[in-house]
Specification:
Elements (H helix, E strand, L loop, with lengths): L12 E4 L2 E3 L2 E3 L2 E4 L11 E6 L6 H9 L1 E6 L16 E4 L2 E2 L4 E6 L12 E7 L1 H7 L8 E4 L5 H10 L8 E7 L8 H20 L2 E8 L6 E3 L6 E3 L1 E8 L13
Parallel strand pairs: 5-6, 5-11, 6-7, 8-10, 11-12
Antiparallel strand pairs: 1-4, 2-3, 9-10, 12-16, 13-16, 14-15
Helix pairs in contact: 3-4
GO molecular function, one term: methyltransferase activity
InterPro entries: Methyltranfer_dom, METTL24
Organism: Hirondellea gigas
Length: 252
């Protein structure tokens, strides 16, 4: 995927949010500000799935003038309520392909010192999330950083045609489990995921850029060689039914 050329060009591509750690920016998200797909201040809605303790993008989208619906079941329900602006709305819910309450051990996954141990979290489908938060309008920008649940969530959303009206999607893709499979299993899993990504094009979304995540925690060393591969990265897509220029070359 990293070697695939861009399918559509954004002339004004910016990054909202992000913090610098060891001279590497983390947490920022690509946004296209071309007029045909631009987010309109005081008229745009962002759905942000997956927060942890890094909300620089959400704060930047708020300052830009968007209503930001922030969802994450792994932080306390009231964590982002105090001090947030009137445009930020936080809900302790996660995204999946089914709606349920399940027990999750946050001992390793949470960076929040007072939110550890086994807790009951709410996971919901995209349409049930919208019912839960009582928002039924257009979602202009969809962000997903949900640690592997993006595959089944995207599959559900496309299967139920729930992406209508959305103009921009950024999703962190994870492939870590692939390296624990046999060769036959791995090839079958990669084909399954590639076909899912192709379905996004059928739903009107074209690739602007894919960026491998620069993190040692997601780096896989290929056994018996000196080679390494990043097992996750961010895919940024635009809805193709705009007049944004198509491109057959890499966007750098």
């Amino acid at each position: 995927l990293e070697q695939e050329p861009s399918q559509v060009r954004c002339k004004k591509l910016v990054e909202l949010g992000g913090v610098s750690c060891d001279r590497i920016s983390d947490g920022g998200k690509l946004v296209c500000l071309d007029p045909e797909v631009s987010l309109k201040p005081h008229g745009c809605v962002v759905f942000s799935f997956g927060l942890g303790d890094e909300v620089s993008f959400d704060n930047a989208a708020d300052r830009f003038g968007c209503d930001v619906y922030m969802m994450d079941p792994t932080v306390p329900p009231q964590w982002y309520q105090d001090g947030s602006s009137s445009r930020q709305h936080f809900f302790s819910v996660g995204l999946s392909n089914q709606t349920m309450v399940e027990a999750m051990d946050l001992e390793q996954s949470s960076n929040l010192s007072d939110w550890r141990g086994v807790v009951n979290i709410t996971m919901a489908t995209y349409d049930d999330v919208r019912k839960l938060i009582k928002y039924h309008g257009t979602v202009h920008y969809l962000k997903m950083d949900i640690e592997g649940s993006e595959w089944k969530s995207l599959d559900y959303m496309m299967e139920n045609d729930l992406l209508q009206g959305t103009q921009q999607i950024i999703v962190e893709l994870h492939l870590l489990r692939f390296f624990r499979m046999t060769q036959e299993q791995g090839v079958a899993r990669l084909r399954q995921k590639w076909l899912l990504l192709e379905r996004l094009e059928e739903h009107g979304f074209l690739r602007v850029r894919y960026q491998a995540t620069q993190s040692s925690s997601t780096l896989h060393r290929i056994q018996g060689t000196n080679r390494t591969l990043q097992t996750c990265g961010e895919l940024f897509l635009l809805r193709s039914n705009s007049s944004v220029g198509h491109s057959n070359s890499h966007e750098q």
